[in-house]
Each structure stands twice: as structure tokens, then as C-alpha cells.
Write a structure and sequence with these properties.
homodimer, about 240 residues, mainly alpha, Arc Repressor Mutant, subunit A, Tetracycline Repressor, domain 2, 10 helices, about 60% helix, flat, DNA-binding
Chain lengths: ~240, ~240
DNA sequence: TCTTAGTTACGTACGCCGTACGTAATGGGG
DNA sequence: CCCCATTACGTACGGCGTACGTAACTAAGA
């Protein structure tokens, strides 16, 4: 242990007790810290989340935060778990495909509310309390499906992968524009112009054909929710009967 | 334009000429810059890639790099495009599912060679030259498939999403351990212990059942390449006839 | 009850980071 | 041939994550 009680050994933040027996009672909690970080990320983007900002936001000194969160990466884990608690699980209907589609829609809505979520999901890869609740509920929904349990987890992973990539694509343009000094329209403009000039070169005839008719970028006149439903449903159709 | 000739307007880096007509001939190239950044990221992780490191690596002053790369984000675009050039496209066989599976395997191998790639893919969302080559080749492979072109692009996106998420999961443990002062085994140990203790609580009966038998973390005794092939094949099976 | 050891709080400091800006050198287009 | 766009790059600013040291606090053990 270092002087400040911060361990230099591997650990999972969830297995640490919030309150140790000995010293003064902690003035803050993981929940309030996570909530503040989520608030900042929602309002100003994930790059605005710093240990200093979060500490200041809850009215603590910068280094006090390290009593609750050993590293910034753990702060990310807290954030992901916090928003994962926004799922509303309803009882399985017996139609596992409908249930999983409903879950996927919730995930998409969650990511639209918290656009930084897709970028944090892959580095984290943890089994946080709310992630476990999510997995357990998914398996409940999959009870009618007659495949080995291990494959059910594969199915859940596949759906989540598709959802994450799909929504990341949806959000990419807006997120990039928000982090740069120009607008989403300008960003889309220069990218469309560039793509148009390349396609006009004739080097990519099939791509040019595929892009003509629809816009080159997601969201250009398409009903994204419908496309989303179709993509997820198609994936779900590959399992089972 | 600022004094240094660095534009503050939206632009796509690929539409900038490498050499302007006027001044001294540039001492470096986008290719060598991208190669150096890739070298650093491969050896020490993406977090070791900084403008200073890359500039020093090619023997340039830090701020000289900004004559070639207007922002760090554009450096990431160069990196993604550079490794995208490692694809080896072979003529379509007529069996589009086999062709796309082969492409997906190449993507997986690419991501294993460059473990930072999955994390850079979503923020970038660009149509770099090599990305266009990739898309064009994918559409060539999909010529035998009788669905609208727009859906073919959806299929390619779905496959890439699945691949990216799958490989990101494969790599997460090792990548996280590399960025922290302890080993991958220690990392896996504490996470497995935590998961075990939660599952033993009885709150997640279905998850506990699914996890018993196989290891809780990917790669615990499984043939990951086979699981990968199965996942991608299943997805491909959802399209077409 | 009193000590004491573990814990919380937090100020200071170090070595990084991205990049704005100013200046000197360079060499092709008019 | 000369002008000026362009390259090269040093300096500097404000921010970052976090190591470390110290003071205040409180529950557990004597």
C-alpha cells in the first residue's frame, strides 16, 4: 500500500468495500462520483471527464478522489455500470426474439442518451453488478431457446456487438463534430465532397453504384430505427429453428 | 490560415496535396509518419503515440509534424488507413459467404497484429483510400448475392461490427494488463475471483449455470478461431437464400 | 478509557500531453 | 530575379494523471 491507502496490486473495484472500518467516514460515494462523471460526459463529452473535473464537481480535492477510484480507468468502469443501471427489465414474454430486440432497442436508446458509452464499452470488459444483472436477464429471455448455455452467451455478445457498432456509426459524425471547432453539417459536407470526388474517379464502380440513390452517410433520409430493427432481427433470425 | 499554414477549416486529410507548389520540399511523408506511429503503437500501445514521440521518431521537431497532420485525430486516420493497406485481396470465388469469411479472418489477423485497431476504428469513421478499396472488394465478393446494393453495405457493416467487437473482447484482457503494472494472469485472476464470488451469491442462477463448465473469460480452453468462424458464419447465414 | 494504527482529505510537484504562435530559412511561380 | 507561400521548429500555455507527504479523524484493541 502507498501512503494514501491506494493499492498497487491488481483488484476489481467492486470487491472493495465502500467503507473501511477505521478512519473518518467517507464524505462521498462511488454512486455520486459516477453520477458526476456521467453528468460531465453527457454535457461536454468524454474528453471533458478528468479526475480534477470530477473531484471539483463533487466538492472534493483532486487527490481525494483517489481514495474512491484507484485509477481513471476504474472511473470509466463506474460510469459504464452507472448507466447500465438504466435498463428496465420486464418479464420475458416467451418470444425470445422479441425480448432480445426490445433489449437491443433499450441499448440503442441508452447509447443515444450517453454517446460516450460505445467508446467505453470495449476497453472496460468487466462484470460489473449491473452488467451481471443484464446478462442474467438476457439468459432469462433466452430460456425458450434450445441451445447450449455457452452459445446463448455468444448470441448475447453478438447482438451487443452489432448494436454497439451500429450505434457507434450513427453517432460518429455528431461526436466528431462536437470535439472539433466546426459543425456537424460542415463535417458531413467535406466528407461527402471527398467521397464524391473519389467515387467520380471510376476506381470504385460498385461502391459508386451502391452509394448513388441513398446518401453515403448514415442518416441521410433513412429511418435509422427501422434499419436498426432490421439488422438486429436478421441476426436473431440466424439462431434457433 | 494560421501563420504556420495550418487550416482551421473543416477538411479531409486525404484531399490535401502532399506537396504544395511553393516552399521547400517536405522532408517527410504521410506514409513515413503513419508507419512510425504504427510502429510505436504496436510496440508500446496506442497511449504511447503522441505527436512528440512520432515527430522525434522520424527525426523532426514536434511542431513540424503539424505541417503534415493538422490534428492528432488525423494521425489516427493515417494509422488506420496504413494498416488497412495490409489486406490482401484475392479474386472472388463465386461463393460470397466463403469470400466474406476469408475477409473477416484477415480482419481478425490484422487486429491481432495491431491490437489498437478496434479502439481506433469507431472514432475514425472515414472513407480513407484503403477503406474504399476494402469496400469495393467486399462488393465484388457480394456480386452473386441478389439483394439491393444498400443492403450489401449493411451486410459488410454488420460483419465488421461483429468482427470488431469479437476481437476487442479477445484482446481486452491482454490490452488492459499491458497498460497496467501487473500481468495478464494476475488481471484474469482477480476478475475470475470476483465473478466467482458474485455467482456464488445465487443472485444470477442462469449465468452461473452458463459459466460453469466453460471458463468465464474468453480463451479459457476454447479454440477462439473456431468460435470466431462459427459466429461470422452464423451471421452470414442470415442473408440471402 | 486511552492509545494506536489504519483511513480520509488534500496540497504540492513532476513529467507528460496537444497545440497556438512567432520567426527564420527555403525555393518555385510570376 | 525576387516575392511570398510553405516548411521547420523553438517557446510557451494550460491541462492532464498521479506519486508522495502530512494533518485530521475514528474504530478497535490494550
Amino acid at each position: 500500500m502507498t501512503a494514501g491507502g491506494r493499492p498497487a496490486e491488481p483488484e476489481v473495484i467492486w470487491s472493495r468495500p465502500q467503507r473501511a472500518g477505521r478512519g473518518p467516514r467517507p464524505a462521498h460515494s462511488r454512486e455520486s462520483i459516477a453520477a458526476e462523471a456521467v453528468r460531465i460526459a453527457d454535457a461536454e463529452g468524454i474528453e471533458a471527464v478528468s479526475m480534477r473535473r470530477v473531484a471539483a464537481g463533487i466538492g472534493a480535492g483532486t487527490m481525494s478522489l483517489y481514495n474512491y477510484v484507484p485509477r481513471k480507468e476504474e472511473l470509466y468502469e463506474l460510469m459504464v455500470d452507472a448507466v447500465s443501471g438504466e435498463y428496465e427489465f420486464t418479464a420475458p414474454t416467451g418470444d425470445w426474439r422479441a425480448d432480445l430486440l426490445a433489449l437491443a432497442r433499450q441499448t440503442r436508446a441508452l447509447m443515444h442518451r450517453h454517446p460516450w458509452l460505445p467508446r467505453l464499452l470495449s476497453p472496460v470488459y468487466g462484470f460489473s453488478p449491473n452488467a451481471l444483472r443484464y446478462l442474467e436477464h438476457s439468459l432469462e429471455c433466452l430460456a425458450p431457446l434450445d441451445v447450449p448455455d455457452a452459445e446463448k452467451l455468444e448470441l448475447v455478445a453478438a447482438v451487443n456487438g452489432t448494436v454497439a457498432t451500429y450505434v457507434a456509426g450513427e453517432l460518429a459524425l455528431a461526436e466528431r463534430a462536437r470535439a472539433l471547432p466546426w459543425s456537424e453539417d460542415e463535417e458531413q459536407g467535406v466528407r461527402t465532397a471527398w467521397l464524391g470526388s473519389r467515387l467520380a474517379s471510376g476506381e470504385y464502380p460498385r461502391l459508386a453504384a451502391a452509394v448513388s440513390g441513398t446518401g453515403p452517410v448514415p442518416g441521410a433520409g433513412l429511418d435509422m430505427a427501422a434499419v436498426f430493427d432490421r439488422s438486429v432481427s436478421r441476426l436473431l433470425g440466424a439462431w434457433g429453428t
